[in-house]
Every structure is written in structure tokens, then in C-alpha cells.
Amino acid sequence: MVPPMPTGPHVDVLQALGARGRLRVLTTRRGADFTSNDYLALAESPVLREAAAAALARGVPPGAGGSRLLRGNHPEHEALEEEAAAFFGSETALYFPTGFAANAALAATLPRRQDLIVHDALIHASVRDGLDPARIAVAETPHNDVTAMEDAILRWRAAGGTGKPWLAVETLYSMDGDRAPLADLVALAARHDAMLLLDEAHATGVYGEAGRGLAAAWEGAPNIVTLHTCGKALGAAGALVCLPRVLRDFLVNRGRSFIYSTAPSPLMAAVVRAALAWSAGAQQERAELAALVRHAGALMQHRLGIAPSGSQILPVIVGSDARAVQLAAAMQARGYDIRAIRPPTVPEGTARLRLSITRHATPQLLEALFADLAVEMKEAVA
Question: Angle 363-379/321-333 helices, nearest 10 degrees?
Fold first, then answer.
């Protein structure tokens, strides 16, 4: 007997997403990598494989067995946090299982009820998930508009706001590939006694001395909290929050996603330690990536007439969801792993291909990619 077709509100939502070209499905890897965040090609490298094998050999377990506040706190976690604080130049660090959990915990926990959070319009969904406008004042401002952020603080003060402003931005934006005006934001924070929440997810490992990120010059200041994910250029998993000790202690006591989650894998903590040590000496690898990014940017301008972002994240904005999906499928058929990015991940009307340049690429592969993409863009329907 054939089972009846499912019905109900969940089915209705899925069908509506499909009709709009926004239904998400899981697909495996296909073709040349132009979609991952493995910018330095470290994730599958012998460096991390050997680090994992060595950690297992010395008895480091894959599982923690409990939360950090119970038996799950392992010496590898503490060693990683100590080394990360020294590496990035912060007073302390705290290791989370994912960047999403870390960002949500920062937004939900550190600002107090009398405070204000001002965030960039393109801030990551993880920060938004931590916001509770019923608990705390929240203001969203246009992308990279420092004047608008200051205006939001002034309006809040004029309306009786008495707490501390918190400014939340990404140092390198994950979908547009552009940078935050960090020097201006640091000056703004100084003028208004504000805290800065800086998400370095896509900058860690790639930029700054030893791969310390775009905010390295200000890291360690008492009003700065940074997030360094370990699953992108560092090739592993988890996230390191670098911050003053008092705020670390507060997260340990009040951060629900930290308190009530099983601790990250001690084995993975050992792998991240190796990734940080490797990053400290990876000047040549960063230079190779930078050369590939420059070459890709020049090809993008020449072949597509699109100005590059200046980073390893190159958005090709095509507008409609259908066109983005069609182009992605066409490029996958040609052997490139490229995915369509659609709302709500990006604003309405800005569906795109997000080209991620990694050390998996070669100059020749980049030339073929942009030649093929130019052909497909001419043929794709609007």
C-alpha cells in the first residue's frame, strides 16, 4: 500500500520554499572547491592528520563526556585557551564547540538589561539569534555606516539610555567579502565608552601577522571581544572567544550555551592547538593565497566586469533566486563546486554565487573558472 502524501504546515512551508526557488537540500562535494572556507587548504592536510594521530597516541579522548563545568573540562581545553590568548594577544580565551554557539552566547549574555546593542545590517545570523529585544535595546544600522552607529547611540542616550553601548560587526563579511572600518569603529567606541564585539571568522588565519586577524592591532584592549573560528582557515572545528578575564568568568557562569552544552572534543582542541602553531609560521601559504586572490580579482574584473571585493570571498550578485540556482547548476556541471546563496542569507534581490578562493585553486583553474562563468552568465535567464 502506498503511504499517503504528507500534509500539514511543515509541508506547506517546504512547498512554498520550493516554489520560490529557496528550498535547501544537502548535497555532497562535487568538483573543484570554490565554496568552502578552507582558505589555507589546511583541513585535510598532513599537519592536522598528524596532530590528531599524535594526540590519540598520547591518550587524548575524542569525546569530553560532559559539560565543561562537570567532568568535561579537559587539560587540552585549558592548554588551547592559554595558547590562544598568547597567540592572539588577549587576556584570556574560551573555547566553544561552534562559532554559531559562541556568537549567540556573546550577544545573549554579555550586554546587560540597561545596555544597547548596535549591530551592522549584515551581521551573521548567529549574533541575531542571541539578541532579545524584549530584554535589551537593539539597533540595526546600514552596512559599514559608522555615522549611523553613532546616531543610534545618541538617540538611545537622548531617550534615557544609561548603560553601555555594544557594537557588533564582522571584520570581514562572509557574503560580501568586504571589511569593516575597524579604525573608525575603535574611535567610535572610545568616544562613547562602548564595547566592541568583533567577529573575525573569515579573517583569522588569513590576515594579520601570523594570521591573527584584521583586528590584531587592537586585540587585548579591555573593551574588545573577538571571535576566532577554528573551522575555516584553521581547518579544524570550534571557536575561540578572546576577551578580558572578567567577561570570560561571566560567560562561564551565565552563558547558557556554554554551561549546558557538552564540552568540545578534547581531540579537536589538540588539533586546534596544532593549527595555531602552524598558522604562526604560515607566511608563505598566506602569500600564496593572496596571490591567488589578486589573480581571481583581476579575472573577475576582466571576464565579468565585476569589481572584486579585495578578499578571498568574491560575490557574483545576479539578483533573482532562479538565476543564481541556474548558474550554480551550470557551473557544477562544468566541474566547479559553486553554490547559490539566496535570501534570507543575503538581502532580497541579491541572490548570488559566492566564490571562495582557497589554496586548493591554481592560476590555471581560476582562468578556466572565469572563462566558463562568463559564458554561462550570458546564457542564463534573468
Answer: 130
